Amino acid sequence: MTTLTGQITVHGSHPATTATVELHNSSGDVVDQVMVNGEGRYTYHLAAGTWTLNIWDAHGHRGKAEVSLQDGEDRTVDVDLEEPEGGH
């Protein structure tokens, strides 16, 4: 089992407190969704393999990350969300 944690931010330093982190397996299937906590942090306990995170918040910001985990590995993946198309 591995642990994947991280912080989701907007503009590099502001926690994205309304963000949702959606987990996809290597086949692209949605496995789970979690809301970040008040500091923009999330945690998943996963099997080894390749996982993709799709992240968005209530303001239309988006982000994505892919991570390959080895058995027993703990990894931190922080993502800074991007402005929506035609953003402010």
Give an account of the 3D structure.
The chain is mostly beta strands and about 90 residues long. It is built from no helices and nine strands. The chain has a single domain, classed as Carboxypeptidase-like, regulatory domain (Immunoglobulin-like), CATH 2.60.40. The chain is about 0% helix and about 55% strand. β1 and β2 form a beta hairpin.
Q: Which short descriptors sum up this protein?
A:
single chain; 88 residues; mainly beta; Immunoglobulin-like; 5-stranded mixed β-sheet; 4-stranded antiparallel β-sheet; 9 strands; 57% strand
Offer a quick outline of the entry.
The protein has no helices and nine strands. With 88 residues, it is mainly β.
Itemize the secondary structure elements and their pairings.
Layout: E1 2-10, E2 14-15, E3 20-24, E4 30-35, E5 41-46, E6 49-56, E7 62-69, E8 74-76, E9 79-81
Parallel strand pairs: 1-8, 1-9
Antiparallel strand pairs: 1-2, 1-5, 3-4, 3-6, 6-7
